[in-house]
Write a structure and sequence with these properties.
Layout lengths: L6 E3 L3 E14 L6 E12 L9 H11 L7 E6 L7 E7 L2 E9 L4 E2 L16 E8 L1 E2 L1 H21 L13 E2 L3 E6 L5 E2 L7 H27 L2
Parallel strand pairs: 3-4, 8-11, 9-12
Antiparallel strand pairs: 1-2, 2-3, 2-11, 5-6, 6-8, 7-10
Helix pairs in contact: 2-3
């Protein structure tokens, strides 16, 4: 069973290691898509980060940290890992572990993004949700969709705007998300908003990401 004790913060990166492979679906920078992985990394880089090949540089960093490339899912952000927020939530025999970092420097309204040129800027919302339970592929994907719904609602409640369109942002242009399940314990055929799993993700991610967003906004306010 995964708990918050599986998450280690090394300053430059945060990692969760699992003894057994987790069924995973993600948009991570390294090893995106569907597969089974045991190491999950969220790495922070400097604002001036601009290598010739970011993917190759990320692979070198993973190896330098001692993690196997084939078993590692990794994301990148310019948000300092001291602003990372975690949470553990449970409902009966199902529990989830959440890791979130939030940067809002390039907030975008996807419904209006076609109207403007958006110069690349730093700002990423990285979300990891680890589920102690058995999920079908359908449940895994529905859980991911539900997590994106939570993110969009939080941005709306905080009135985060796309600076180009002046409308409510739906995310940032470089968001990444990862859903991973242990494939042990309580079975979940579905993960939508009215299921046990969906409700747990809705509550847990809402609480955790709200803390992350509020921390980021307070930090930016204090550094104006």
């Amino acid at each position: 069973m995964l708990t918050l004790e599986n998450i280690k913060n090394y300053g430059e990166y945060i990692v969760l290691e699992s003894k057994e492979p987790l069924r995973t679906f993600s948009s991570a920078m390294h090893n995106p898509g569907y597969g089974e992985y045991q190491v999950f990394m969220n790495r922070t880089v400097d604002l001036s980060y601009n290598p010739l090949d970011a993917h190759e540089e990320m692979q070198q960093f993973i190896q330098q940290c001692g993690y196997p490339l084939p078993q590692t899912v990794a994301m990148m952000t310019a948000v300092d890992m001291k602003f990372a927020f975690t949470g553990f939530y449970e409902d009966g025999d199902t529990s989830i572990v959440i890791l979130v970092t939030t940067g809002l420097g390039n907030a975008v309204d996807i419904t209006r993004s076609y109207e403007y040129a958006h110069p690349p800027r730093v700002g990423t919302i990285n979300t990891f949700i680890f589920i102690n339970g058995y999920l079908t592929d359908e449940a895994l994907i529905q859980a991911l969709c539900g997590a994106v719904e939570v993110k969009t609602k939080i941005l709306a409640e905080h009135q985060i705007l796309d600076p180009q369109s002046g409308t409510i942002a739906t995310g940032t242009s470089t968001d990444s998300i990862c859903i991973a399940s242990t494939q042990t314990g309580e079975a979940h055929a579905y993960g939508g908003s009215i299921t046990k799993l969906g409700k747990l993700i809705g509550k847990g991610l809402y609480d955790t990401m709200n803390c992350s967003v509020e921390s980021f906004l307070e930090y930016k306010k204090g550094n104006r």
